[in-house]
Amino acid sequence: MTTNLLLEWAIKIAILLGVVLTAVAYLTLLERKVMSWIQLRVGPNRVGPWGLLQPAADGLKMIFKEDIIPLNANKWLYIVAPALGLVPALMALIVIPFGDHITLFGRTIPLHVTHMDVGLLYLFALTSLGVYGIVLGGWASNSKYSLMGGLRSSAQMISYELALGLAIVSVLIWAGSLDLSKIAELQAGYKWGFIPRWNVFRVPFGTFGFIIFYIAALAETNRTPFDLPEADSELVAGYHTEYSAMKFVMFQMSEYINLITSTSVSTTLFLGGWNGPGVERFPILGVGYFLAKVLTLILIAMWIRFTVPRFRYDQLMRFGWKFLMPAAIFNVILTATFVLLIR
User: Fold this and answer.
1) pLDDT of 157
2) C-alpha pair distances (Å), 305 with each of 204, 208, 225, 321
3) How many angstroms separate the most distant Cα atoms in the chain?
4) For residues 169 and 175, what is the distance between their CA atoms, to the nearest angstrom?
5) Would you list the domain boundaries of the chain?
6) Which pTM value belongs to this model?
């Protein structure tokens, strides 16, 4: 392993962390702005021009807030739990390709931190670990509300991760690879001269797969209407009820980073990744296309949050097992039959 390669990795990781952590801070502001537009309110506008310094003020406030540990909590697990949620969320981002290749100072640089032939398996392994932080945080807090939130999260993750995985299987059958970069490359170009070869346009299985994946991803990231683990009307704040200061912030950061990860994977698998007009001549445009698609999916998730009411727990389980799961299985069968007949 050469020094240049290590330096390249270090620079990529530093840029990725800087961009993602800044994006997480401003996604909180964007969500409050979207909420205010939908509800015909003003929203944050006092701290800095148009409220742009509000995330900095909130972050500074949380750094100096008192860090309280409940008296009868399991101290070590209580402290470790937020990190168990945040670290896997950050590690998952390193295999996501946000562009093809660019040439800089005579050196060809791939626009991802690292490349794995089994990138999707790596993503599934890490995103599955995030629930341990939520469950342990709820259990270690010694609060019945926190414990119920943690248990709900584990049941929800098991229920919807099956549908999410089956939605991806339809893409894998078509692409024949677990390599995220290869899956994105296969979606380059146009069909009939004007329809992008994105998997979402491969009717019917691509469209069905995308819808199933996106719904399951919302449930995996505990977004409304699937936010049962932190239902404020029932559980105060759910699994992080007893958390304060930066530990509370780490749980919130994990949720937003997981939202970024899930929308990035949706973009790569179904929306062509970095592909778009002019990318062949100007590869740097691919980064802009990728970010635009990710931001669009995030805005849709925010729109859903402020327009759709929360499910009851029995409705959540029924929807996952009796509707989404059979739909995902049917989509896999449909895809396999189609590929067998065409190829």
Assistant:
1) 83
2) 27, 22, 6, 22
3) 67
4) 10
5) 70-342
6) 0.90
Over 60: is that where the pLDDT of 38 sits? yes
Residues 241, 243, 248, CA angle at the centre, nearest 5°?
A: 110
| Assigned token pair, 49 | 């021009």
| Residue 332: closest CA among 127, 167, 90 | 167
Question: Secondary structure of the chain in the HEC alphabet?
Answer: CCHHHHHHHHHHHHHHHHHHHHHHHHHHHHHHHHHHHHCCCCCCCCCCHHHCCHHHHHHHHHHHCCCCCCCCCCHHHHHHHHHHHHHHHHHHHHHCCCCCEEEECCEEEECCCCCCCCHHHHHHHHHHHHHHHHHHHHHHCCCHHHHHHHHHHHHHHHHHHHHHHHHHHHHHHHHCCCCHHHHHHCCCCEECCCEECCHHHCCCHHHHHHHHHHHHHHHHCCCCCCCHHHCHHHHCCHHHCCCCHHHHHHHHHHHHHHHHHHHHHHHHHHCCCCCCCCCCCCCCHHHHHHHHHHHHHHHHHHHHHCCCCCCCHHHHHHHHHHHHHHHHHHHHHHHHHHHHHHC
Bond preceding residue 225 cis, omega within 30 of 0? yes
- Over residues 209-266, the pLDDT tens digits come to 899 999 999 888 888 788 877 666 666 667 778 888 888 888 888 889 989 999 999 9
Encoding tokens for residue 131?
């629930």
CA distance 262 to 292: 15
